[in-house]
TrEMBL record:
SUPFAM superfamilies reported in the protein's UniProt record: Cryptochrome/photolyase FAD-binding domain, Cryptochrome/photolyase, N-terminal domain
Biological process annotations from GO: photoreactive repair; response to light stimulus
Keywords assigned: Chromophore, FAD, Flavoprotein, Lyase
Photolyase/cryptochrome alpha/beta domain: residues covered: 11-140
Source organism (scientific name): Rhizobium multihospitium
Cofactor: binding details: Binds 1 FAD per subunit.
Catalytic activity, reaction form: cyclobutadipyrimidine (in DNA) = 2 pyrimidine residues (in DNA)
Protein name, UniProt field: Deoxyribodipyrimidine photo-lyase
UniProt-listed InterPro entries: Crypto/Photolyase_FAD-like_sf, Crypto/Photolyase_N_sf, Cryptochr/Photolyase_FAD-bd, Cryptochrome/DNA_photolyase_1, DNA_photolyase_1_CS_C, DNA_photolyase_N, Rossmann-like_a/b/a_fold
Length: 487
């Protein structure tokens, strides 16, 4: 059910965009558009962290282009986007004074800082006689909605998924309005270029446009392409990083250029020749995102503290040099290095490889999962305050429904299983491009003549392993066993 705001009076409505940079299926936008009152779209660059303010460097690049796309889209509705920066309530108060606005609408956010800020802002506005309404739509189900039979929140995914299924189909998405009533005058706006969101010296995002086109229109096109193609076979092929088998919608979802309801709706009524397993598997990925927000909502310290406090005493071995080698894709394990270099080149990494690289950092190098989470948050264009943290804790064994700690990925075997021909490694670790398939995931075992034939000298063209995996596995298991001794 969509709440409404007063349709009386001529005072403008401020439509506050946040991580919902779209016109389609935007409930706050719909409420403003149907009020009959002038609408002033705004975006505020906030200083707070944890989802309310500065994003990682890669996502700032995306935000620049996404806001530019939103500005153009609003132009087709006879509207425009006002950009401001600073404390949100102070900016809103100033805009109210400048425009005579009598109402503010926005779509809810679910990160801890965002919830706290919005609660304070809504109360302050209403205390000053300003209508303030917030709307759902950023998730399929709000994280407080699903409860166990005992009235608690879910701690494991499978029961959460079952409860989600039994709760009924998510609501149908709503269409974008055809026009927005304009105010008699527009407030002044910052220029997007003045925010300096794009990297310059150096411009490490030069390869991003090879893979990404930010904005709502590109998100809709990507969804159509996926439904028309890769969804057929998704259940199996999604695990192979060298195959174009995933939707690539995660960056668009992260900044709300497309809604999860629109994506879910696209999977309804697909032809019988697309196996049900593919649709269910894809939907489960959407619902995993919901589960991550369910965790974050009920455990607000998820980003900084172990969900399972038994892991608070884990004997991490911080090592700045090993962390740097991991970040730069110089570990000597090709599948790990390919993933980390893909991350740097395109601001994104295949999901299977995210698990492999995270396992390597946590369980081979014994480096705190929070160091990995921070690096991903800064370098991923799809960085998400709930999913990024929950997924790192999942690998670390400290999270809700986590992978058992003893599930330690062997980077060689993982590479051979999910990149059997080495195509992924050859793409992102080109110094190994001419290496025989037999050794592409274990160059440190290749005979000298094979290495020479491929133009490789270990330690010069490609690093030797920074750690022996078998030894590292034993150390990791011993470290984990120490928790049992202390517990």
């Amino acid at each position: 059910m969509i709440m409404t705001i007063s349709k009386t009076g001529a005072n403008p409505i401020l439509l506050w965009f946040r991580k919902d940079l779209r016109l389609d299926d935007n409930h706050a936008l719909q409420a403003a558009a149907t009020s009959g009152r002038p609408v002033i779209p705004i975006y505020i660059r906030e200083p707070e962290e944890d989802g309310s303010g500065p994003l990682g460097g890669a996502q700032e690049w995306w935000l620049h282009h996404s806001l530019a796309a939103l500005q153009l889209a609003l132009g087709t509705l006879n509207s425009r986007l006002t950009l401001r920066q600073g404390d949100a309530l102070a900016v809103l108060d100033k805009l109210i004074a400048e425009t005579g606005a009598g109402a503010i609408v926005w779509n809810r956010r679910y990160d801890p800082a965002g919830i706290a800020a919005d609660t304070q802002i809504k109360k302050a506005l209403r205390d000053n006689g300003i209508e303030a309404e917030s709307f759902a739509g950023q998730l399929l189900h709000e994280p407080m909605r699903l409860r166990t039979g005992g009235g608690s929140h879910y701690k494991t995914y499978t029961p959460f998924w079952r409860a989600f299924e039994q709760s009924g189909e998510p609501p149908f998405p709503i269409e974008a309005p055809e026009t927005l009533p304009a105010p008699s005058h527009w407030p002044k706006s910052d220029t997007l270029d003045a925010w300096s969101l794009l990297p310059t010296k150096p411009n490490w995002a030069t390869a991003f446009p090879q893979m990404w086109t930010p904005g709502e229109a590109a998100a809709q096109e990507k969804l159509r392409d996926f439904i028309d193609g890769a969804v057929d076979g998704y259940a199996v092929e999604r695990d192979f990083p060298d195959k174009p088998a995933t939707s690539l919608l995660s960056p668009h979802l992260a900044l709300g250029e497309i809604s999860p309801a629109r994506i879910w709706h696209a999977t309804r009524g697909l032809p019988d020749n697309i196996a049900k397993d593919n649709v269910v598997r894809f939907r489960k990925e959407l619902v995993w995102r919901e589960f991550c927000y369910h965790q974050l909502f009920h455990f607000p310290k998820l980003r900084t503290e172990n969900w399972n406090d038994r892991y608070d005493g884990f004997p991490w071995l911080p090592d700045a040099e090993l962390l740097r080698r991991w970040q730069r894709g110089q570990t000597g394990y090709p599948i790990v290095d390919a993933g980390m270099r893909q991350l740097w080149r395109h601001g994104w990494m295949h999901n299977r490889v995210r698990m492999i690289t995270a396992s390597f950092l946590i369980k081979d190098l014994l480096i705190d999962w929070r160091d990995g989470e921070a690096w991903f948050r800064d370098t991923l264009v799809d960085a998400d305050p709930a999913a990024n943290t929950a997924n790192w804790q999942w690998v670390a064994g400290s999270g809700a429904d986590a992978s058992p700690f003893f599930r330690i990925f062997n980077p060689v075997l993982q590479g051979e299983k999910f990149d059997p021909d080495g195509g992924y490694v050859r793409t992102f670790v080109p110094e190994l491009a001419d290496l025989d398939r037999k050794y592409i995931h274990r160059p440190f075992e290749a005979p000298d003549d094979v290495l020479k034939g491929a133009g490789i000298e270990l330690g010069k063209h490609y690093p030797r392993p920074i750690i022996d995996h078998a030894m590292a596995r034993r150390c990791a298991l011993a470290a984990h066993a120490s928790l049992k001794d202390d517990g």
